């Protein structure tokens, strides 16, 4: 019988490779490497390149000329830049309606009524449709001559102004078009969240006397915190990088009244060959997003710690 | 007073009838258990009582008051769910006090009630925890605490212990019984575990397919089942049923011959309203503990299959010559051995007789004797 008090003989060290000894360190690195390489090549490198480009004057071809902060100087004196920035803030604020509307629609759709599946799929629809199509559809809606809205209000004796041609209204016309798919997106997030709410818990709350608004605020919304967080994050990013709808519906016009930073950057780079100037706009947009992304990451890390 | 009375209560979901006309009464302070196979409508019935589900037709009275137009939160009932249904974002104290806060009860009183309930359930040290930081048993206590603080007239439990492990289940079972004695409120308790039903109930309601099969005390159901379904459902392992034929009817007694043991007639007293004729196919029911008596008489020969020895007793799963499954109970010291053939003695006094529809024909002599002893 083996003597329990004697120490076990350590096994003779067998021949080991460097890899087998450091498996736990190397394997994850190997897995991360391809993604990291791609990310560096297509994201990080262009960011650095853009930032450095913003200190040059460059037409896209030919020599680059170092101009220091000159591009930024021009930018801060450029009324179009300020207009675009203000418009981006409009986008940001109004886009926050999307999570609210999405929640309301999700609550409405989260019922067991005959035909609700069909209604649900109709609400999913704008999310599936490309932004280009959304832009075109809304452009037609707004058309003062033969558009849907004009046709609807005509019997009331009202005449629709040309929204997208108006300096005051064009931005809001585009934002409303953007809200449509964004709301659908938030609604999907909330529907998924609602799906995971334990129905017995809602019943328990009903027995506890919580109804309507109080039920929503005290019981349902706290369960939807994760969905709300994601919805707001995605919406804010969507508002800051709004581009396609502006390009399709107004091209920033009339007179830059509906311009946004992303489109102004594109405009400068592609049509005016002011690469350095465009790069400085991109850098500013990047900085604005950074503030927000840092906040986002901090929240995320905090939440992850909380859930351990 | 909080007695509950259901008269001809029905419930349908669309075209599907789930509850098909139930009459039932739970007296004040009574512990009533609903048992029945899964899907028979126990939960639905409970939810109708507390108002989470509407009543399609019939009447529900709680404390003599018609409940048809009373909101779920105003019925004076509190429900404990199988999934506990705690609010995950609230602490234990907040979970327990939520209903009281909704009812705008003064904070001092809320605190007092929460503290008292926490003391009864021994969860005072958990009051500041969130549900996810607790074990299943602790969560169940909180769920019960949430019901207690509302000081309801009627407690409703929907399979509250089925998510707990076996040991905890036994412990909580005892505690719930204790709680019932302490609080004295009417309790309705749904389970499909018939040990819970037998041990906790003042009154058991056996449901099947939306209908009441029998209502009675645990012992009544055990010794004097009204039909084959109740006989088979109450008791674990279940009652043995053997095909038999009536060979002799005389003066309120029937003698039947079990297939495979034709030369041994079983004689049982009949119920006054039972109609049996000679040659009728019947079913003899006998519980495993009444099967293996003294050996050696020419009773039912059975072939022993699997034997489960539980330490205190042993169950042998056997087959008779005619292929009927029979479970025998025996002492654990000398259980029948696998593969042997033994003689199962049928004790006439504990045999039940059922007709082909499952209706009970016999007056179980065992039950009669027990009643005599009690008198
Ligand atoms: N909301 C509902 N809609 C349709 N059918 C239901 C609904 N709730 C329960 N049922 C049906 O009613 C029957 C009884 O259910 P239930 O009361 O939950 O049974 P159990 O006795 O297992 O608790 C089941 O067949 C179930 O499918
Ligand atoms: Mg159930």
Describe this entry's structure for a reader.
The complex is a heterodimer of chains A (308) and B (375). Chain A is mostly helical and 308 residues long. Chain A contains 15 helices and two strands. Chain A has helices at residues 18-21, 23-53, 70-77, 79-95, 97-109, 116-128, 131-142, 148-153, 170-195, 199-207, 212-223, 225-240, 244-249, 261-271, 275-306; strands at residues 56-57, 65-66. In chain A, strand 1 and strand 2 form a beta hairpin. In chain A, helix 7 (131-142) crosses helix 9 and helix 14 (261-271) packs antiparallel against helix 15. The longest helix of chain A is centred in the C-terminal third of the chain and has 32 residues, at 275-306. Chain B is an alpha+beta fold. Chain B is built from nine helices and 19 strands. The two termini of chain B are 30 Å apart. The chains are: A mainly alpha (308), B alpha+beta (375). Chains A and B meet through helix 10 and helix 11 of A and strand 6 and helix 2 of B. Bound molecules: adenosine-5'-diphosphate and magnesium ion.
Task: Quickly describe the structure.
The complex is a heterodimer of chains A (308) and B (375). Chain A is mainly alpha-helical and 308 residues long.
Keywords:
heterodimer; A: 308 residues; mainly alpha; MetI-like fold; 2 domains; two-stranded antiparallel ribbon; 70% helix; 1% strand; B: 375 residues; alpha+beta; Rossmann fold; OB fold (Dihydrolipoamide Acetyltransferase, E2P); six-stranded mixed sheet; five-stranded antiparallel sheet; 9 helices; elongated; binds adenosine-5'-diphosphate; binds magnesium ion
Number of helices of chain B: 9
Principal-axis shape of chain A equals flat
> How many domains in all of chain B?
2
CATH homologous superfamily descriptor of the largest domain in chain B: P-loop containing nucleotide triphosphate hydrolases
Name the poorly predicted regions of chain A. Answer: none
Stated plainly, the CATH topology of the largest domain in chain A is called MetI-like fold
């Amino acid at each position: 019988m083996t003597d329990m008090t004697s120490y076990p003989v350590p096994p003779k060290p067998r021949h080991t490779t460097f890899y087998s000894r450091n498996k736990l360190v190397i394997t994850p690195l190997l897995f991360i490497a391809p993604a990291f390489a791609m990310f560096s090549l297509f994201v990080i490198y262009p960011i650095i390149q853009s930032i450095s480009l913003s200190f040059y004057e460059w037409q896209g071809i030919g020599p680059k000329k170092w101009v220091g902060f000159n591009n930024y100087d021009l930018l801060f004196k450029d009324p179009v830049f300020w207009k675009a920035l203000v418009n981006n803030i409009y986008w940001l604020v109004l886009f926050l309606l999307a999570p609210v509307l999405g929640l309301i629609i999700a609550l409405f759709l989260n019922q067991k009524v005959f035909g609700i599946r069909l209604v649900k799929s109709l609400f999913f629809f704008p999310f599936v449709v490309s932004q280009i199509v959304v832009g075109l559809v809304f452009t037609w809606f707004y058309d003062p001559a033969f558009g849907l809205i004009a046709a609807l209000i005509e019997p009331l004796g009202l005449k629709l102004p040309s929204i997208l041609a108006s300096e005051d209204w064009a931005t809001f016309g585009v934002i409303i078009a953007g809200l449509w798919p964004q709301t659908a997106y938030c609604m999907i997030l909330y529907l998924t969240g609602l799906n995971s709410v334990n129905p017995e818990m809602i019943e328990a709350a009903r027995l506890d006397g919580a109804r309507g608004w109080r039920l929503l605020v005290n019981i349902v919304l706290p369960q939807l915190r994760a969905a709300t967080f994601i919805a707001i994050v995605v919406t804010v990013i969507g508002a800051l990088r709004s581009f396609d709808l502006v390009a399709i519906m107004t091209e920033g016009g009339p007179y830059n009244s509906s311009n946004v930073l992303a489109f102004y950057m594109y405009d400068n780079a592609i049509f005016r060959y002011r690469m350095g100037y465009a790069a400085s706009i991109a850098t500013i947009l990047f900085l604005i997003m950074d503030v927000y992304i840092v906040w986002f990451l901090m929240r995320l890390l905090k939440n992850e710690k909380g859930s351990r | 007073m909080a007695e509950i009375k259901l008269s001809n209560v029905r419930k349908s979901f669309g075209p599907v009838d789930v509850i098909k006309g139930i009459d039932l009464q739970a007296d004040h302070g009574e512990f009533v258990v609903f048992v029945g196979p899964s899907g028979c409508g126990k939960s639905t019935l409970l939810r109708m009582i507390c108002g989470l589900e509407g009543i399609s037709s019939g009447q529900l009275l709680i404390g003599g008051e018609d409940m048809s137009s009373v909101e779920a939160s105003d019925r004076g009932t509190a429900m404990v769910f199988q999934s506990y249904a705690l609010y995950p974002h609230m602490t234990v104290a907040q979970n327990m006090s939520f209903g009281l806060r909704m009812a705008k009860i003064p904070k001092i009183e809320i605190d007092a009630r929460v503290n008292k309930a926490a003391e009864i359930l021994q969860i005072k040290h958990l009051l500041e925890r969130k549900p996810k930081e607790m074990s299943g048993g602790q969560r169940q206590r909180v769920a019960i605490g949430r019901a207690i603080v509302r000081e309801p007239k009627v407690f409703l439990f929907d399979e509250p212990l089925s998510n707990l492990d076996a040991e905890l289940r036994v412990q909580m079972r005892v505690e719930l019984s204790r709680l019932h004695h302490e609080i004295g409120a009417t309790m309705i308790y749904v389970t499909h575990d018939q040990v819970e039903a037998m041990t906790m109930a003042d009154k058991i309601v056996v449901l099947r397919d939306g209908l009441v099969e029998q209502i009675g005390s645990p012992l009544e159901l055990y010794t004097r089942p009204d039909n084959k379904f109740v006989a088979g459902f109450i008791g674990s392992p279940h009652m043995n049923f053997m095909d038999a034929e009536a060979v002799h009817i005389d003066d309120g007694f029937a003698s039947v011959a079990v297939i495979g043991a034709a030369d041994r007639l079983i004689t049982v007293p009949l119920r006054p309203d039972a109609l049996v004729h000679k040659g009728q196919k019947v079913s003899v029911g006998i519980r495993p503990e009444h099967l293996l008596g003294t050996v050696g008489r020419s009773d039912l020969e059975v072939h022993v299959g699997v034997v489960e020895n539980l330490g205190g007793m042993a169950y042998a799963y056997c087959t008779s010559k005619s292929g009927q499954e029979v479970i025998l109970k025996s002492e654990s010291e000398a259980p029948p051995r696998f593969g042997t053939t033994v003689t199962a003695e049928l004790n006439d006094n504990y045999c039940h007789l059922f007709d082909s529809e499952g209706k009970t024909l016999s007056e179980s002599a065992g039950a009669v004797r027990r009643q005599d002893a009690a008198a």
